[in-house]
Design brief:
14 helices, two-stranded antiparallel sheet, Amidase signature (AS) enzymes, globular, alpha/beta
C-alpha cells in the first residue's frame, strides 16, 4: 500500500504505473489522505469519488495516465464550482470543460479538485475572502504567490506531482519562483483558451507548474495547438519532450540583468541570480552581451486594463457585492468604474507600445535575457502585498515588474529554481524571443542537470 504521494516528478510516476510498482488508485488514495492532513490550504474543492472512478479505469499508456492532477480554481470543469475564488460567485457551477482541461483529461490525468487562486487571478497573493490564505510548504507563514498559488503549494508540498495554472502577469513564474518549481509562460496563444474566452488585455496564457523540465515539456505536448474557439491560438507543434536537450545553444547571445532595469531586487536574490546566470551561460556556451535594459513603467492604468473581465464576471452583482470582495479587487473596480476613462485607455495603449518597442529593441540584440523571477523571496501568507521598496518611496508595481513585461510583449519566459535565500526558494527567469519555448526548456534542462533542485519542499508532504 502506498503511504505517501509520489515525491518524484509526474513522468517518473507514470513510469512507476507502467512498471506495476504503483497503481493509479493507490496513488490517488495517498494523495487524498495527504490533502486531508495538509495545513497548506491548497484546494478549494475536491471531487474524490469521481477521481476514484477515473483512477480505477486509468489508461497508464497515456502521457499522464493515472496522474492525480490539480486544476486551478479559475479553470472551467463541468459540474465543478466556478467561483473565480470570489464570494459573490460562490454558488456558480461550470457548465463545460475548457479546451485546456479537456486536453489535460484526454492525456490521462486524474482531475482531483480545484487548487486555490487569488480572486479573479488579480494579484500574486493567494488569500481570498472565500478560501482564506494558502501557504507555502517552504514556510507556512509565507505565501506561495499567485495567482496560481494553490497549484504551487500542492506540487511543491508533495501533495501531487502536477497542476494547471495560468499567467497573465507572472501567475506561473511568481509562484514557481516562490516555491522552487518550474514555471513556463508560453508565447501568447500557444495553449488555447475557451470556449467563451474573453480577449481582455491579451496577456494571459495557460500552463502548469511542475517539479521537472520534462514534465513541463510533456504538458506542452498534450495541451498546445490551435482551437477555433480561440482565434488567437497558435498552430500545434509536436516533439517538446522528445526534443529536450537536442538544440545546440552555443554562441547564442544573452543579457544578464537581474532587475530588468525596472525592479528593486533584494541584493541576496540579485547575487544568486547573477551567479547562476553566469554558470548557465558557461554550461550552455552562451555569449554574454552587455545590453542596456531599461523597461518603461506601466503605471496604474495598466493594472486597470484587465478589470473589464472581472466586471463582466460579476455582472449585475456589482456594486452591491463590493463588501464581499478582497481589498485589491474592490479597490480596482472602484477606480475602474468611477475614474477610468478614454484618456486612461489611451495611456494604456501608449504604455503597451512603449513596452513592446523596448522589448523588441532588446531582442534585436540578444536571444535571451536572464533576470530574477521575483524581487525577493516569498512574503507573508496573509499579506499585505509588499509595496515598500525603500524608506523613501512606495512602488506598487515592483512585485510584478520582472514578470509583466513578457505578458505585455507576448513572448515566452521560464522560472527555474536556483537555490535559496534565507531558507526560501529563489527563481531565475530566462526570457526568450517569441515561439522559442523549446530553447528555454533546453536552458532549464541544463540547469536541472548541472545543479539539480529539490523536487519538493523539506518535510513534505506537509
Amino acid at each position: 500500500m502506498t503511504d505517501t504521494p509520489w515525491l518524484g516528478d509526474a513522468c517518473s510516476l507514470v513510469d512507476a504505473f507502467r512498471a506495476g510498482e504503483r497503481s493509479p488508485l493507490e496513488e490517488l488514495e495517498a494523495t487524498l489522505a495527504a490533502i486531508d492532513a495538509s495545513q497548506l490550504n491548497a484546494f478549494s474543492y475536491l471531487a474524490a469519488d469521481a477521481a476514484r472512478d477515473a483512477a480505477a479505469n486509468a489508461d497508464v499508456s497515456a502521457p499522464f495516465g493515472g496522474v492525480p492532477t490539480g486544476i486551478k480554481e479559475l479553470d472551467s470543469v463541468a459540474g465543478w464550482p466556478y467561483t473565480q475564488a470570489s464570494v459573490p460567485l460562490k454558488d456558480e457551477v461550470a457548465t463545460h470543460d475548457s479546451t485546456f482541461v479537456e486536453r489535460v483529461k484526454a492525456a490521462g490525468a486524474i482531475a482531483v479538485g480545484l487548487t486555490t487562486s487569488s480572486e479573479f487571478g488579480g494579484v500574486n497573493l493567494t488569500r481570498t475572502n472565500l478560501n482564506g490564505a494558502t501557504r507555502n510548504p517552504w514556510g507556512l507563514d509565507r505565501t506561495p504567490g499567485g495567482s496560481t498559488g494553490g497549484t504551487a503549494s500542492a506540487v511543491a508540498g508533495g501533495l501531487l506531482t502536477l497542476g494547471t495554472g495560468g499567467d497573465g502577469g507572472g501567475s506561473l513564474r511568481i509562484p514557481g519562483g516562490f516555491t522552487g518549481l518550474v514555471g513556463l509562460k508560453c508565447t501568447y496563444g500557444r495553449i488555447p483558451k475557451g470556449p467563451n474566452m474573453m480577449t481582455g488585455s491579451m496577456t494571459a496564457v495557460m500552463g502548469c507548474l511542475t517539479r521537472s523540465v520534462r514534465d513541463t515539456a510533456r504538458f506542452l505536448d498534450v495541451t498546445n495547438g490551435f482551437d477555433h474557439r480561440d482565434p488567437y491560438s497558435l498552430p500545434r507543434v509536436d516533439g517538446w519532450e522528445a526534443g529536450l536537450g537536442t538544440r545546440d545553444l552555443a554562441g547564442r547571445t544573452v543579457a544578464i540583468v537581474p532587475d530588468l532595469g525596472i525592479a528593486v531586487v533584494h541584493p541576496e536574490v540579485a547575487a544568486l541570480v547573477q551567479q547562476h546566470a553566469e554558470a548557465l551561460a558557461r554550461d550552455a556556451g552562451l555569449e554574454v552581451i552587455d545590453v542596456p535594459v531599461k523597461l518603461p513603467e506601466l503605471g496604474l492604468e495598466w493594472a486597470l486594463s484587465g478589470l473589464s473581465e472581472v466586471l463582466a464576471g460579476l455582472g449585475d452583482r456589482y456594486p452591491e457585492c463590493e463588501p464581499d470582495l478582497t481589498l485589491e479587487i474592490g479597490f480596482g473596480l472602484k477606480v475602474g468604474t468611477e475614474i477610468y476613462n478614454l484618456e486612461m485607455r489611451s495611456k494604456i495603449e501608449q504604455n503597451r507600445i512603449a513596452m513592446n518597442e523596448a522589448m523588441a529593441e532588446i531582442f534585436d540584440q540578444v536571444a535571451f535575457v536572464i533576470a530574477a523571477s521575483n524581487p525577493d523571496v516569498a512574503f507573508a501568507a496573509e499579506g499585505p502585498l509588499p509595496t515598500e521598496v525603500d524608506a523613501k518611496r512606495v512602488e506598487l508595481g515592483n512585485n510584478g515588474a520582472l514578470t509583466i513585461p513578457a505578458n505585455v510583449f507576448g513572448n515566452p519566459a521560464i522560472s527555474i529554481p536556483v537555490g535559496a535565500s534565507r531558507d526560501l526558494p529563489v527563481g531565475m527567469q530566462v526570457i526568450g524571443r517569441h515561439h522559442e519555448e523549446a530553447s528555454l526548456l533546453d536552458l532549464a534542462l541544463c540547469v536541472e542537470r548541472e545543479r539539480p533542485w529539490p523536487l519538493v519542499a523539506p518535510g513534505s508532504p506537509v
